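Structure ticket #2291
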Amino acid sequence: MKRQRLRKFLVLVSFLLFPITIYYLSPVLPLQGALEGVLAGSLMLFGLLFLVSLVVGRAFCGWVCPSAGLHDATVLGQCKPVTRGHWVKYLIWFPWLVLLAGLAIRSGGFHRADPLYQTVEGISIAEPGSYIIYYFFLTLMVGLALTAGRRSFCHHLCWIAPFMILGRRLRNLGGWPALQLTAEEDRCNSCGRCGRECPMSLDVMGMVKAGGMNKDECILCGQCADTCPKQAVRLEWGTNRRVAKERPLAGQGVPSGKPRT
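Resolution: structure written out below.
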């Protein structure tokens, strides 16, 4: 559980720094920057998260994202799992991409890059009036978590998640080494603790039984691995592994090495 204490400490620190970093996660500033021909810092971060997700999937969501620290607190008031509606975030993401491309074309492309775009010397919330934006997002995230279920914002409205989901799917197709969950079904005693502890409401036990641990909503937080009493689930670095179980053929009974006649 030391790993989980470290993870929760990191997301808590990230949440405390949210007034400084909120503009780097904004979906609005890339649009405003595109209209002015400026590659905003938030859009640069989105691109970086896509590249990083090729090897660590959505680990950003579990280990670094400021909202993770907030959701760890809201789960004390609402533990309702979220199992449907994951597609809703794409209704935000796809139109956002189209609008971004349209604005960039209208301005003749990006003429310069500004990592600190619209910040005051790198600080997002530097004036009292800016806290309106900050508290709006806090209210939205907390409100969704308390009404629709834990981490509802991550499931339904997060505009950053699709970048990392796309990166993870590309990795799964390529099969190169990456951070991933692995499982040994034989070790599982079907206690269900892994699923109850999953912050993203995934049916981890079902994933173990099905032999498929790569899910779009998995944030690789390792909570399931660290709470499994039988160590049936592990968070580790490696490649996709498919273990085929040998099954006897119908009528098989001839000793190996002896051809049938």
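Closing remark: The longest helix spans residues 131-148.
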